[in-house]
Amino acid sequence: MNHQDILIDTHTHLASSRFAGDVSNVIARATEGGVSQMVAIACDIEDSLTNVRLAAEHDSVAATAGIHPLYVHELDKSTWLDDLTRLTKEENLSAIGEIGLDYYHPPQDGSSEPQWRKLQRVVFEQQLQLALEHDLPVVVHQRESAADVTEVLKGFPGVRAVLHCFSGSAEEAEEALSMGHYLSFTGILTFPSAQSVRDVAAAAPLDRLMLETDSPYLAPVPFRGKQCEPFMVKHTASRLAELHGMSDREMAETTTRNARRFFRHLE
Q1: What is the CATH number of the domain that holds 58?
Q2: Which of 9, 28, 95, 156 has a CA that sits 20 to 30 A from residue 123's CA?
Q3: How far is the C-alpha of 5 from the C-alpha of 123, rounded, in Å?
């Protein structure tokens, strides 16, 4: 077994329409490429149901369920929380996610910015409460919203979170780490322009680091411009290992240990 055989991609959108009709091959390529497990991330209820099905069909897939902040306006207010609550009882559910706040994109429902942000926050808080009640960790999306995400998370001190695709400042990283949360890094680590992200990753404690692709987005070097897949996580792992002065195998073992400690049902 080489170092790649123990890698975990902790954030991949296997339910994405970009993988439609090819998801079994995507999973097979990941396995052949040395990725032992993938955490399938949800953006809405449909994704959540697909993830649970994929996890039942593939031993290498773990499921999450959740509502991404850019999809909160599409929710059926009378049923979505009940639907999500039912999903928390699924045997192979590993986390709630991805959830959070996104202030980068304009309101998706034609509302004012304050109304849009309030709706996102309400749905975020409801999902954090659900995670707390069912002892599930959460995968958090924050984009130009770090201060408000921190404020909300402080209101749920019992929740364990990973800030996915972390690209924030050293101060934002320290704030999250001081609350006991994790940081997850994508192929952005390999981008020539991303020195600030590398600096944060290099300074982060080894027991709070995780790896992800965020596929089908953010393909690492040498795949820039192509559709990202879980097998590519090894390139991000190698860059992170280099930043910490470790071997690729040591970093694979470290980040996999962290992922197994954080998510439910990863073995």
Answers
A1: 3.20.20.140
A2: 9
A3: 37
